[in-house]
Every structure is written in C-alpha cells, then in structure tokens.
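hi got a favour to ask and not much time before my train. below you get a single protein, a line of residues and a line of whole numbers that encode the local backbone shape. could you go over both lines and see whether the tokens make sense for that sequence. a few lines back from you is plenty, here it is:
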Amino acid sequence: MEENQVQLSTYLKEATRSVHNEAETSDFQRQLGTGSVSLEAYKSYLSQLYLVHNALERGLAASSETNEIATPWQFQTDFLDRDLKALDVNIGDIQPFTATSELLFRIEQNSRSNPLALLGYHYVVFGSKHGGKYIAVQIRKKFGFEGEGCLYFDPYGTNFQTHWLEFRAGLDKVSTSQASAAVVLEAAKEMFQYFGKLGLELDHLSPVDAQSSTVT
C-alpha cells in the first residue's frame, strides 16, 4: 500500500469507535436490546429503515465505484419488506420521519456526486448485524416471532461473518486517499448520528412497555 493510501476497513473501525459507542447507549437502542420496545415503535423503526436501505442500496448498485464491494448478498431491503409484511405494514404508506428525510436527502446527494460516500453509510448498517443477533433474541421473546417479523436483525445466522469479511476485503481493495477516506468516514458518522436522531423521534412516538422494561 502506498504511503498516502488508507486501509479503509481499519480506518473506519478505529475512527468511528466513539460515535459507535454513543449510538449504542441511546434509550431506543436499549429498549431494542432488552425487549422493552413497544410494537408501535418497533414497526415505525423498521419502516424508517426500509426507506433508508431502499435508497442506499439502489445507489450502491447503480455505481461502478461501489457495486462490486457492496453486493446484493449484503442488501437488507428484502428482509425488511418481509418483516413489515408480517407486521401488516403497507410499504406504500410509510412516510419518512424528519431524521429519515434528512438522511435520504444526503444519500441522494452522494449517489449523484460522490458515490464512494455510500460505503460509509453501508458500513454502519451492514456492520450492525454483529449486534443484531442479540436484538433478534429479545424481539422474538417479546413478540413471539418465529422468523419473519425480526428477520432483519439476524438474516444470515452463522454465515454473517463470511459476508462481513468479504465486505471488509472489498473495502480494502479500494485505492483510497486520506481525503477520500475522510468522505467515507463522514458518511459513516452521519449514519450513526441518524440512529440517535431517529431514536429520539421514536421515544416521543410511544411509551415503553412498562411491564417488560424492568431488567432483572
């Protein structure tokens, strides 16, 4: 690797550590992880993620800079579609929250002018599968799902690590200058911040299920 080149996967992991940790401590993420989230808020959460993944994955697939790194095997729109159908949510009725509208605008901007940045968004949402399997356990307990309904959080089972390592390897094949890596990093930070903003909107949507919010 040339001196001015960056190993993108390592750079992103190290440079997003603090904002990643902050995102995981939000009230809404705690509710997901403990199974204390209300069904209304849960449906809304998946609905907003459907809009984000749909826009992001269309952008990734359309660009020659990204479509060999972020492959269809990594895309999540179909899993969300299946979950939302199981939850009786009509995809056509979903309206973006304020945080989602802002992020969709940024995804559209970068899709047109700087598609490499889309890898930063994707790095965050695809990497969330590491913790998603634990969320899936709690959500299955809470709502009695056996498959669809929380497929999004653990769609690959024991095969996830293989997909993740393939994605990381793809990132590290990109010839990335420090300036370009900084653009990808900013997008990754935007995505982490989005989860925080979305959580605040969801906190105001519906109260936590008080009976199940007590952690023993």
The chain has ten helices and no strands. The domain at 8-205 is CATH 1.20.910.10 (Heme Oxygenase; Chain A).
